[in-house]
Amino acid sequence: MFTNSKLAKSVKLACAFGAASAAMVAPTGALAQDAEANTVEKIEVTGSRIKRADIEGANPVTVMSRVDIEKFGITSIGDVLQSIPSAGSAINTNNNNGGDGTTTLNIRGIGSNRTLVLVNGKRWAPGLGGSVDLNNIPASIIERIEVLKDGASAVYGSDAIAGVVNIITRQDFEGVHASGYLGEYDEGDGNKEQWDIGFGTQSDKGNVYLNVSYVEEEPTFAGDREISAVPVFGTPEGFGGSSGTPFGRFIFFDEGANFLDRSGDGNGGLTEWQEPGSRFNFAPFNYLSTPQERTNIYGQARYELTDNISVNTTAFYGNRKSEQALAPTPLFFGSAFGDTGFVISKDNRFNPTDQDLSTDIPFGEPGNLFLVGRRMFEAGYRSFKQNVDQFQFNGGFEGVLEFADREFYWDATYTYADITENQMTDGLLNTDRVKKAIGDPAVCRADADCVPLNLFGGSTDIGQGTITQGMLDYITFTAQDTSSTKLESYTANISGELFELPAGYLAFASGYEKRWQEGFDQPDAIIAAGITSGNARQPTSGSFSVEEVYLELAVPLLADMTAVEQLDLELATRYSDYSNFGDTTNSKVGLKWRVNDDLMFRGTYSEAFRAPSLIELFRGNSDSFPPLTDPCNGGAAANPNLPGCAGIPAGYQQPNSQIRITVGGNQNLAAEEAESFTYGFVYSPSQVEGLEVTFDVFDIEVDNAVSSVGAQTILNACAQTGQNLCSLIQRGPAGNVVDLFNGLINLGGQTTSGFDYNIAYNFETEFGDFRLNWDGTYIDERSIIIVDPVENTSTVINEAGKAGDRDVVPRLRTNLSLTWAMDDFTANWLVRYIGNTTEECAIDGGELDQQLCSDPSTEVGGDSFNELEAMAYHDISVGYAVNDNLRLTLGVNNAFDTDPEVSYSTFANSFDPSMYEVPGRFFYGRVNVNF
């Protein structure tokens, strides 16, 4: 337990810096000191349901206060949490292609749906995929955030594999607080603003708090930054570009059965296709960071009905409007994609070939239409808009039950949450109408709405070209999709001290929870019918329920002995019974050994699990177009050692870098299982006042992971064996992959191990008070276990220190901050360090590999690698308290204008937005008012 002098020192430091931290103040609750009795209030520590006076548990917890959050100078609490060293790559608002406006947290890099998010100890509603959108939790309501970096399913249930984020809101606030924030990049774009106001009042019987916040973030365009203005940075013009061009690409067999690869000339004719110069640079037309508008209303109230019973409620409503933008829609069709029914009629007056071109004519015969790629500049940008309403209500009772001269704490809570999302997508094409508009003019004339379509012109100006508005009105549509998730639960908990042992009281916590989750995704009817130029997908709908009971014990073993001031054993177990996959039991054992006031050792072993999400269980089949490499390029003749390439015509080359695959859910999925070990120490030497050192080793293993085999793995396995997984691949007569099924199964797993450290030092000088905090995570191992379901063999791939598409795993990631406070002035310097990583660097397998990869292969076509060097962002801010009620802050993020490391394996922008930031200095100002 903290001594009174230690508590007083913590409070003094908190006042000096306006912040609490794991190294300074109790990390998990408000401490109350009775001046006469010299007692400390019992609190609930994140990772345990037992209220206790000793705030140091066996679990490693990182704490961020409200002022710590403001030091990052950004508007999304999700972006703040993604910046902590233990966080891995995760989706955020810098993900445009593939993003959906959400920001998630991926502790340890093992998956954002394996991190449980709580608000005031209550489960926060996830989306269909099982991850929580942290953007919808306003920063202005937060008192502090506690990040438990340990498995905790025995205490909290599903999803707590990598850890738990517990967001604690302001409690017992009285008065009014308001703040305003404005910021933008030095390029004059990416403007962000945040406004909030909160009201609080309290009496002897209770308190009420209400908060309203508004955030608006404007976009940046990829074309406005050098690194992202081309598909692959540093390559020749056109390299990595798309076959879908503003003037069109047309591959067909002419009347003499000659295989022709042609580009539109912009004037209605055709010319030779040139590689790579004819390809379209789509990059400048994409968002680099996406726009958002968020409005949130939060309220909480507590009232004492009697001396021992209180009623409490919290209610939250949030609305998010977000958007992603891509270059104009590419219309792709042809026998290369397995399409049928597309005929460009020779009677279509825009057809310059004077022959019928058809997907239904066999490959190699005159008139076979192998590929058309036409970028529909006339239709404008593709726009993907989300309008999300989220509501969550928690209400219940809590109190103290006195029995046998002891106090037992209890609570009972009802939770209801609803997330409804309406999605609108502009710039899509109805492919059934495209077929009619390019086909027999007589058939088109029979439809009063049909307008013959001109694919043989084009323009490089958005909204301009040879496709008229009448043509667009017939073939384009705006997709309107709707999705929803609901969560409902009843929980009851009780905790207290049972009886006294020689070393102290044996304490317990026990509880019951009943939870229901349901959800659906209803795509637009045209998308569901599969007649769209975008990704087709089928509806999703499903539900499940779970009943759970748990028991937790804190057993004091030894106390007040030489070298053993305190030795406690922590035990927990939870039984969960799911309606869909059955039951599971998960347990935890922890040990805490306080040697003396200066030194404490701790360790835990935890079992954890994750129930499959609604989307994993019930997702309807849908299209996806990932970048893949067909190992059978060149056909059978060029790959004599690959039996799976037999029968593929000689000279075959993959027509497009993105291959259509089909993904879908699986109602027979079982729960994921995990085991984790953590052990370490906390050291606060009395000889050095203000210094605290923590060090914790972690080792996590996930089994039975919900995953897909992987589209590239399927292609490679089939090519190498001629049997394994080949049934999942459908090829056309030209040898091209028409479709590939990559559904979900319980397959494989992953392991990750390493250590966390934190060194915090607070000291006072005549020049002011200083706080130095160094927080870091080192990844020793991160292995992905891939299982071949045919051969029943597994392959272990160590990914520590590697980078790939949307997954950067630096071995070392650290944050180093120096805070200074003197009188009314404060200043903060934050250094965010990202260690070096290595990626596979297959640019073209030849000259470009030699030029751009830091470690190119010595053989043409060999394995090349590229190192992403270590780098750091420097954030600087200064603050001034004008008076007791008004505070001003000015800051700049990325003060030294450090560019992200160039990556050749990432999906877009030539850098990974899940780890690195939009290039440029970001300047901001903040005003805080309290009265």
Automatic annotation (TrEMBL):
InterPro entries (UniProt xref): Beta-barrel_TonB, Beta-barrel_TonB_sf, Plug_dom, Plug_dom_sf, TonB-dep_rcpt-like
Location(s) in or outside the cell: Cell outer membrane
Range of residues in the leader sequence: 1-32
Pfam family, one: Plug
Domain TonB-dependent receptor-like beta-barrel residue range list: 348-894
Record-annotated TonB-dependent receptor plug domain positions: 58-164
Record key words, sorted: Cell outer membrane, Membrane, Receptor, Signal, TonB box, Transmembrane, Transmembrane beta strand, Transport
Membrane topology value: Multi-pass membrane protein
Family in the record: Belongs to the TonB-dependent receptor family.
Protein name (database record): TonB-dependent receptor
